[in-house]
Amino acid sequence: MRRLIRPALSGLLAAAGGIATAELVASPVRPESSPLVAIGGTVIDATPTPVKEYAVATFGTYDKPLLIGTILAVLALLAAAVGVLAVHHRAAALLAIGALGLVGAAAALTRPMARPIDALPALLAGAVSAGLLAWLAPKAATAPPPPSPVPGTGPATDGAPAGEPAAVPAAAAGDTSRDDRAAARTGRRAFLVAAGLVALGTALAGGLAAIIRRSGAQAADEARAAIALPAPADPGPPPEQTPGFYTPNQDFYRVDIALTVPRVDPRQWTLQITGMVDRPTELTFDDLLKQPLIERDITLNCVSNEVGGPYVGNARWLGVPLAPLLRAAGVQAGADQIVARGADGITIGTPVATVLDGRDAILALGMNGQALPPEHGFPVRMLTPGLYGYVGAAKWITSLELATFSSFDAYWVQRGWAATGPVKTASRIDRPKAFAQLAAGTVPVAGVAWAQHRGISAVEVQVDDAPWQQARLLPVPSTDTWVQWTWDWPAATAGSHTLRVRAVDGTGALQTEQRADPFPNGASGWQSVLVTVA
Ligand SMILES: Nc1nc2c(c(=O)[nH]1)N[C@H]1C(S)=C(S)[C@@H](COP(=O)(O)O)O[C@H]1N2
Ligand SMILES: [Mo]
């Protein structure tokens, strides 16, 4: 086992050196061409939807560091194995490492927005790793340990692979043993020096890559900080004052396929409006700032949200109405789908009819008084009140292509999710928390309910099997936001109680009791929480 340490380490170091080189080359120009990012993206795209669902539900926003960590762990195991392979089969080991580089290159080349040059970092990683391994492997090959001077206790020869020299007969030990030990020491020193050099080089390259990457992000962040959002031509109503109505940007849920948050420089950004339009259009960020902007409170939620789950938030958005832009481009007859593309490579398909039906579908530039945060789609994202995010809220948007639903399936639709995703009526209990221990007396029960663009007309609460009670609804600016509700529970009887909530939407339809999982078109069912009154 101990004999494998140096070969395994040389495999690891060779791979680390190659990966660091790739990061260094990728960082300044095309961060997305990093083999790690490309392989991660490929894994995300290939992951079966239920697993992806599980990852989002279980690890939330941490699912990405976890994925990168897993990929690194797998690579480390492979690299160590290749290092061991190099002891007896050097050529095969070098080929294996080269093949890993090819896998990375293939991943980079098949990313949605790939360019041929994106293969370069991975190919370089393969070549550098192979070179490093060729250099380290001979130094890692351990000289056989000096034979034991006592007969019978020397290394067993039984298990030795064919072709390996059997242990030197003990009688011939003496001087040879001392020479061997000296040679082993020199060999170890040579290996340690070489390994140290590779480790140092790797750390330098990796550190430099990190610095370059951060300064690239900084440039986009500085451009973001320098943006002075114009006043809206059509301001929103006075902001609601109740705590919790607006979700602060840093608390707003985040769901996307982007392994690293795209840092888009608004000065280089353009939006293409293409496809089935009479006048293909290209707009710059400044063009958008010059449009009459509207300010609206809109609640956004994710189709992956479970009943009672956290993937819903409400913000005050500033944006350009989308319908006039589309009309100016001249939407052709038959075009029923807007395919939005994001800088992370996603496609999101939104019904043309929904965007043109008079609702406040916007290209959002501002969120709660700031330019969009990078995580939420800076510089520009789409928002379509009443639709789940996966069909109406493309972030880091780069183009809008007018198409048909029959000719193109967007990213999530290819993975089995419904092609159109109107939000389902939902309600949530935020207070008291599940399993809370409460004192008898008046217990404030409170939460939110949403059915964007239909609105909420009533929320009802039930304790155990008692009759449903009407909750009080707090005022809202439009049907496009969630509604905060409260109800005072006269909690008199000690023991366990179940609180249940349901809502009625603006059309008078009662929220369905029918339980459904998020896949394929959103969860449904009434939420209940169990609490104890002392
Ligand atoms: N570019 C891009 N836009 C995207 C996604 C994505 O993966 N990439 N995810 C969508 C989904 S599933 C949701 S629910 C919302 C989430 O927006 P948020 O992260 O700002 O809350 O963004 C949508 N827009
Ligand atoms: Mo979503």
UniProtKB/TrEMBL annotation:
- One Pfam family this sequence matches: Big_7
> Which residues are the signal sequence here?
1-22
Residue span of region Disordered: 143-181
Q: Which Gene Ontology molecular-function terms are recorded? A: heme binding; molybdopterin cofactor binding; sulfite oxidase activity
The Gene Ontology biological process terms listed for this entry are: sulfur compound metabolic process
List the InterPro entries. Answer: Ig_E-set, OxRdtase_Mopterin-bd_dom, OxRdtase_Mopterin-bd_sf
Report biased composition (Low complexity) as residue ranges.
Answer: 153-175
TM ranges are 66-87, 94-113, 119-137, 190-212
Protein's UniProt name? Oxidoreductase molybdopterin-binding domain-containing protein
Question: What lineage does UniProt assign to this protein's organism?
Answer: Bacteria, Bacillati, Actinomycetota, Actinomycetes, Micromonosporales
